[in-house]
Amino acid sequence: MDRTATAGPAAIAPRWVVLTVTWANSLGSGLLWSGVPFVTELQYGFTKGENLLLALAESIIYVVVALGSGPVLRRFAGRGLTPRAALMTIFIVQLVASGVALTGMWGVVVASCVFSGVGATLWPIMESYVSSGQHGGNMRRSIGIFNVTWMSATGAALLLMAPVIAFGHASHTLLVLAPISLLSIFLLRWFPARPAAHPPEHAHTHIAPQYAYLLRATRFVIPTSYIFISVIGPVMPFILRDLAIADGMKTPIASVWMFARMLTVVILAQLTFWHGRWSTLAVGISLLAGGFACIVLATDVSMLLIGLTMFGAGHGILYYAGLYYAMAVGGADVDAGGRFEALIGVGYVIGPVAGMLAGGTQAQLVGATWAAALLGIAPAIMPWLAWRRRLRTEQRAHA
C-alpha cells in the first residue's frame, strides 16, 4: 500500500525517509567527485591533467542537466511524470551505470559521466522535498540536518574506499551504487508524488529584506567555492602521493575536510548570529581560499591537515548560507534547487579549466585557481553595494 495515499499528492515526506535516501545517495556523490580521481590514478594511471579533464566533462554534464531538470519535469508533468516518478527513473539509471563501471577504464569514465547527470537531477528534487512546506526556523533546521546528512556520507565514502583501495580493487567501490539504488527505490513508497509548496499565508513572513541581496551574492560565491573543490578533488591523489602517504591512508586523510565541513554546519545550525550577515560570507571565503593554499603547498602532513580543516570550515559556511537563501527566497520547488545545483556545476567547470591552464608547479596551481576565484567572486560586491544604498536611503527617510 502507498503510505502517501491518504496524505494527498503534495504531503510532506517523512524526515527519516528523506534523510535515508539523502545519506545513501550522498555516498555515491562522494565517490564521484572525490573517490573517482583515486580510482583513475591508482588503477588506470591517469595523470593530473587527465583527472582534471574527466572532472571537466562531468561538470559540463552537471550544469546542463541541473538547469534542465525543472523545465523537463514541468513539460512532462501532464503526462504523469511527478518528481517521485523522476526519482524512480534516476535510481534505475544509477543501478545500471554501477555495473558499467566494472567493464574497465572507459566503463569508469562513462559511469562517472552518467552519475554526474543523475546527481544533477536528483539533488534539486531532494532539496525541494527537504524544505517543502517550511519557512524560517523550521527550514533552517531542516536544511541543517540535510547538510549534516549528506556531508557525513561524502566523508564516509572516502573512509569506506580505503580497504578496497588497499587491496588493489579501487574501481569495485563504484558497485556500492547498486544496493543504494535498490534501497532508494524501495523507500520511494513513502514519498508524496510532489513536494508540498510553501503555505501562501506564510510565504514571506520569515524573509528578511537583505535575504534577496544575499541570495544574489551567493549566486557568485557558491560557484567560486566549487572552483576550489573541483581542483582539489582531481589533484588530491597526487598531493598525497608526493607526501608519501600509504595508499590505504590516502582517502581517510582526504576526507578530513568533509568532516570539518560537517562539523561547521552542526555548529551553525545551533546558532543564529550569522544569519543575514554579509561578514559570514567573507569569513567563509577567507577560510576556503587560505585552506586551499595550505593543502596544495603542504610540505608535511600537519600543514595538510590544517589546510583541510580550514577548507572544510570555509565551505561549510558558504554552502549552508547559500542553500538557505536559495530555498527561502526561491521557494521549495525543483527550479530553485536546480538553479542552486547549476551554480555548483559552474564552479565545477571553471576549476578544472583553471587547473589545466596552470603551470607545472603547485604555486602556479594556487595562483591560477585564486585568479579564477577572484574573477568569479568580484560581482558579489554589487549586491552588497545595492544593499548599502538601500540602507542609506531608508535611514535618510526616517531621519
Description:
The protein has 399 residues and is mainly α. It has a single domain (15-196, 205-389), classed as Growth Hormone, Chain: A. It contains 14 helices and no strands. It has helices at residues 15-44, 48-77, 83-100, 105-131, 136-166, 177-187, 211-242, 247-254, 256-269, 278-296, 301-330, 334-357, 362-377, 381-397. The longest helix is centred in the middle third of the chain and has 32 residues, at 211-242. It is globular. The N and C termini lie far apart (64 Å). Residues 1-9 have low confidence and may be disordered.
Which SSEs are present, and which pair or pack?
Blueprint: H1 15-44, H2 48-77, H3 83-100, H4 105-131, H5 136-166, H6 177-187, H7 211-242, H8 247-254, H9 256-269, H10 278-296, H11 301-330, H12 334-357, H13 362-377, H14 381-397
Helix pairs in contact: 1-4, 1-5, 1-6, 1-7, 2-4, 2-7, 2-12, 3-4, 3-6, 4-12, 5-8, 5-9, 5-11, 7-8, 7-10, 7-11, 7-12, 7-13, 7-14, 9-11, 10-11, 10-13, 11-12, 12-13
Distance between the termini: 64 Å
Portion in beta strands: under 5%
User: Could you give the order of the helices and strands?
Assistant: HHHHHHHHHHHHHH
Helical content stands at over 70%
Number of helices: 14
Secondary-structure-derived class: mainly alpha
Mean of residue pLDDT values: 85
How many β-strand stretches?
A: 0
Q: Which regions have little confidence, pLDDT < 50, spanning 5+ residues?
A: 1-9
CATH architecture: Up-down Bundle
Let me know the largest β-sheet: none
Tell me the count of domains: 1
Query: CATH topology, which one?
Result: Growth Hormone, Chain: A
Task: Please report the first level of CATH classification, the CATH class.
Answer: Mainly Alpha
Question: What general form does the structure show?
Answer: globular
Q: How would you name the CATH homologous superfamily?
A: MFS general substrate transporter like domains
